[in-house]
Specification:
The complex is a heterodimer. Chain A is an alpha+beta fold. Chain A has four helices and nine strands. Helix content of chain A is 27%, strand content 40%. Chain B has a six-stranded parallel sheet, with helices on both faces. In chain B, strands 11-10-9-12-13-14 form a six-stranded parallel sheet, with helices on both faces. In chain B, strands 16-15-17-18-20-19 form a six-stranded parallel sheet, sandwiched between helices. Classes of the chains: A alpha+beta, B alpha/beta. At the A-B interface, helix 1 and helix 2 of A face strand 6 of B. Chain A: This is Acetolactate synthase small subunit.
Amino acid sequence: MKRIITLTVVNRSGVLNRITGLFTKRHYNIESITVGHTETAGVSRITFVVHVEGENDVEQLTKQLNKQIDVLKVTDITNQSIVQRELALIKVVSAPSTRTEINGIIEPFRASVVDVSRDSIVVQVTGESNKIEALIELLKPYGIKEIARTGTTAFARGTQQKASSNKTISIV
Amino acid sequence: GTNVQVDSASAECTQTMSGALMLIESLKKEKVEMIFGYPGGAVLPIYDKLYNSGLVHILPRHEQGAIHAAEGYARVSGKPGVVIATSGPGATNLVTGLADAMIDSLPLVVFTGQVATSVIGSDAFQEADILGITMPVTKHSYQVRQPEDLPRIIKEAFHIATTGRPGPVLIDIPKDVATIEGEFSYDHEMNLPGYQPTTEPNYLQIRKLVEAVSSAKKPVILAGAGVLHGKASEELKNYAEQQQIPVAHTLLGLGGFPADHPLFLGMAGMHGTYTANMALHECDLLISIGARFDDRVTGNLKHFARNAKIAHIDIDPAEIGKIMKTQIPVVGDSKIVLQELIKQDGKQSDSSEWKKQLAEWKEEYPLWYVDNEEEGFKPQKLIEYIHQFTKGEAIVATDVGQHQMWSAQFYPFQKADKWVTSGGLGTMGFGLPAAIGAQLAEKDATVVAVVGDGGFQMTLQELDVIRELNLPVKVVILNNACLGMVRQWQEIFYEERYSESKFASQPDFVKLSEAYGIKGIRISSEAEAKEKLEEALTSREPVVIDVRVASEEKVFPMVAPGKGLHEMVGVKP
């Protein structure tokens, strides 16, 4: 099962190495990592998307992460009401003849063209991972030259709804 | 450099000094008694400040010897072992010891030299990314970037190594950091927001445990090294007596509960007693204290404690639920938790039937061996002699393998902190240097290193340290001219294909000892043991005793890998 785990860590050298090493040591697969500064100086936020076997693995992973001296807080936010976003840059083969057509495709995704060359364009899209995948699928027939994805970054919404089932798939 | 020689008692205000001197002053602040170390290029500035510092430095003959000695010292004294090694190969020679200390939760503060900051990352001479190499086997690690950070880092390192679940902390010091001067102060507050080990148990869980005990019919305590790390053996005894709950030990827990106590069931696990293993198999309440359900203890998990409610007391929350589904998780320090449980003074369980059953098993299935000298001098008998001649009061250090299991089985410990063994990692070559560390921690104790002829040859160069310091360590080599446990498994599981487990040649260990200036004696029979062993073990000088034991003897009882504890074989002659 896929889990989204966020960590706040003291931004010291080696902290990321320790954490990713821990994943290797305990045999967990990382799908993506994002790291960046937080509102507090010297504290970074790391968002992991991981694949684990079951609840027990999540608990063990969370506890092992918590044991790290430089880790301040570990939260498995998968079942919370969350905002999760990923950014992708997609270089699509595009002759002038197909450019309008592609624009028509990306528009509902609120994606934008951020670079144009003679035979390709670069599309920038942000959103949840499955939205990005949907767009990639639609662009595939034109020929994708390159994709760069940031991986998911996420945190809990300010207001938590009760049931986890009423999570809406937002395309915005 | 213009170094200010600072009296450690008066260095309250800040002083300017080199990183190397800061290190020395910090160690004094931490009241370090001795350092186990080995010099080299990158730590020259540190060793220069060590000179005339008044700190005791033990020089082993290999860095691995230094760190295992520090482990032995830590295990026996309860204080952190301090190690220094140079960069590159000096540092990488520590890796086995770090892994050993990590898995057996021993507090170490390890300093490694590093090449100068200006050349880090350039594959400089004797450069190794020791932080990267040791991350999975250290509780925490640091690389010092500027001398001012050293005191803070050292203070944190000692705190982290010795609190919570103890473990090794590594501090990597680039050569220039040791030379550059900075402001020294050791008064700063510790600021580790991400490190706050839980020591006080949750009251609700304590109540649940008290109730579980009162309603149990077949309770048992499994006590591990956490009892020793928490200095809680007195509390364990009081609790077990108050509640009348029988106690089994893990390998590393031995000594935490007196072996001759009527409630003691022996060691559990792969080569544990029938009674301890059946107790874990049949119990309806298993209270694990400072143990981590190692596979060598549990056997096949499908069968382990299959009808039992599990209560798990551990200072490391990550151990709870890691292996066993736990109904009563108690995170806390073993001593504090046991004190709280004793204070509760709950109702005892109605377990007279259970205790009758356990007593019957104890009577029916004691540890055994066939005392037949035609097969050679039995190693179990040798351990019994060692026990007899040291009055059961020695500190015993071992490697891993058959000799370790026989020591665990036939040297019953009455007291805590007498047993120094490599449990989790199973490190050959651990016993001899660990015995040196133990002897340095307990100068008046009788320290016996029980080793195999295989493991002995991995770290025997440390005999020179024994000679140099005239430590009265007794090295008993259970010499069967093979890797006994490997041989045993090959005999049982690999149809007697003894692939590379028998040594085709062997040095003369007596002459070897003499070459080191240490008395060496050879014992080849029970008669010789009776004649020579007592004197050798009770003298106050170092001795190496080469004992030729029956080479085909196997360790029993045994739980084969993949089997449940109840499926153990070799429970009777």
